[in-house]
Amino acid sequence: MTNEQNVVGCDVKSRMKAFIALVMSISNSSMYGAAVPEAVLGEFLGKSPKKLIKRLELEEPKVNAWIDSMRASSPTRVKSTIPASQNPHNYTCWIHHHPSALHVFDQIICKSRGKKIVAFLDYDGTLSPIVSDPEKAFMSKKMRATVKDISRHFPTAIVSGRCIDKVRNFVKLEELYYAGSHGMDIKGPTKTPTSEKAILFQAASQFLPMIDEVYKILVEKTKCVPGAKVENNKFCLSVHFRCVDEKGWSALAEQVKSVVNEYPKLRLSQGRKVLEIRPSIKWDKGKALEFLLESLGYANSNDVFPIYIGDDRTDEDAFKVLRNRGQGIGIVVSTVPKQTEASYTLQDPSEVQQFLRRLVDWKRKTLTTQRNSTKCKPFCTIVDRPRTN
């Protein structure tokens, strides 16, 4: 069966409506003799044809709303690469409220004075570029070196929708905290003197059999949508539609929704060119951020300054936590204006790398100044000591 035939097979709803309407028109047409009684049609179709069409019409706006939402959260590659200068009014207004973290770096540092910085970093679209194949979302050597340096000076966590094993395989740094599956699977550093006390927290262990079951079903269901890819992130599932033609989004959304509807304990949400299936528990990247801060001893501390950098809708939960706490800052990675709880912005992973590098350089300079100041103190004490007669 060809891909085109598969797509046609998936678009059942629109063809069902057309078929029912055709049958009704034929039944009422005099050229075919007496009209077919609706009861007969109902027996043939499974219920009253008028009620069936009405039900389909009621569901259609819901599907359309989903498609509109998918478009809004997943701008096309062409649109996402349009320079901000081509739409100066919207971008200027947005950047006024969400200034570049690079341009106001000194202001950010000023806000963090006297506080302990803790870095939280999303992976895809933040440390690595968004790519067509999620299995090839590699971070650059320069970025890896920068993240390694960041972790030497500040507690650092990678907070990702991917499962821990996958994101750790990409990052390849054992000195970091990792929160995978949108924070439902958390582990501490394994390359530290206290690695035996590494954090281990799994918020949704009881859902693992259900997640595996749904994964297998979705793999089969989505075969009819060319370009769709289902990724098992252990405690959640990701259905990628980055390589799906927009004409196939409706069919894909229907396939995924039809499966998730059979599992009330799971919920469906969206990200950048991805549909996310997660357990219906009150746990997200924001909760993971709070858990890690508490584990680090900063639960009720005013001396901490969390910096969270992310590009996806799922990162908004963490941005909101920081805003509500009145601590630290959220930085959204985006080339286009978007609604966000973040205070600042960076355009792409290259700017993220620049920002993190400046943070490292600032910390090293501060430590050097402190060491030099300490070395001068004994000398200054002798020189400044008043003479006695």
Question: Outline of this structure?
Answer:
By secondary structure, the protein is of the alpha/beta class.
Largest sheet: 8 strands, mixed
Overall pLDDT: 81
Oligomer: single chain
Question: Which regions are unreliable across 5 or more consecutive residues at pLDDT < 50?
Answer: 1-10, 29-41, 75-85, 379-389
- CATH architecture term of the largest domain: 3-Layer(aba) Sandwich
Q: Which value, in Å, is the CA radius of gyration?
A: 27 Å
* Percent range of helical residues: 40-55%
Write down how many β-strands occur, each being a DSSP E stretch of 2 or more residues. Answer: 12
Basic shape:
globular
CATH level 4 superfamily of the largest domain: HAD superfamily/HAD-like
Structural class estimated from helices and strands: alpha/beta
- Per DSSP, what share of the residues sits in E-state strands of 2 or more residues? 5-15%
Catalytic activity: alpha,alpha-trehalose 6-phosphate + H2O = alpha,alpha-trehalose + phosphate
Cofactor: a divalent metal cation
EC number: 3.1.3.12
Protein name: Trehalose 6-phosphate phosphatase
Written overview of the protein:
It is built from 14 helices and twelve strands. It has 389 residues and is α/β, with parallel strands linked by helices. It folds into three domains: 86 residues, no CATH class; 194 residues, Rossmann fold (3-Layer(aba) Sandwich), CATH 3.40.50.1000; 73 residues, Trehalose-6-phosphate phosphatase related protein, domain 2 (Alpha-Beta Plaits). It has an eight-stranded mixed sheet, with helices on both faces. The chain has a four-stranded antiparallel sheet with strand order 6-7-9-8. The longest helix has 36 residues. The chain is globular. Pathway: Glycan biosynthesis; trehalose biosynthesis. Pfam families: Trehalose_PPase (PF02358).
